[in-house]
Amino acid sequence: MADSAPEAVEVNRAGVLEGLPHGFLGRRGGVSTGLVAGLNVGFGAGDDPEAVAQNRHRAGEAVLPGAPLVAVHQVHSAICVTVEEPWDDTRRPTADALVTARPGTLIGIVTADCAPILFADREVGVIGAAHAGWRGAHGGVAEATIEAMEALGARRDRIAAAIGPCIAQASYEVGEDFRANFTPQDSRFFVSGMLGHFQFALESYVAARLEAAGIGQVEGLGLDTYALEERFFSFRRSTHRAEPNYGRQFSLIGLPFSI
User: Fold this and answer.
1) Torsion angle, CA of 175/181/182/183, rounded to 10 degrees?
2) Taking the domain 11-254, which CATH number applies?
3) Section 134-150 average pLDDT
4) Can you give the residue ranges of every domain in the chain?
């Protein structure tokens, strides 16, 4: 398969991470076709494995050319692993966050409505990436990532964190059973919708967890994966359409080869 695409890979960047190789990618710029047309990087999307491999390569080259791209097998946990040496996609550990201090390394997580978080302490050269769906965020995946970064020498008041494209409150209807997982203090992240239903603000909830953990800078990009169909894949949108599968997008951050 030729390494070409109808358009360039779209890379959304955060101001708090300016100057570091990073990007929140979407579906633009890939070679997949059909239901997951575009830059699908998910192995579980029912896509052509060759197309997925090419998309993952294209994604990495758009953020930190030549760097090994390290990812994990995500399960909505609060587990964070430390990357000391890169591994390939056939040896991905089960986790939902990664941290590293290894120059010339690119780490990433996949999402399709959940909130991707990218972290960096520039002063010591420590970075992290976390997959924060509501379960992971509620379970402490952001806090686990911060602690793992601290073990590598980071300091939480120096860490900058950016929350990438995820499902927005207007698109995220939930029921009473979902609301029951949260404390009364979390009521500010819910607004009433249809009878017995609420709209949940995932990005705001994740940002509040980060701020409560003492992170120095927090930025949310405010991009709704559900509503912006031409730019992003969305699990919930595909579910509402009774589609058999859905694409996944990458969020990546790396350390330059010399820092």
Assistant:
1) 120
2) 3.60.140.10
3) 98
4) 11-254
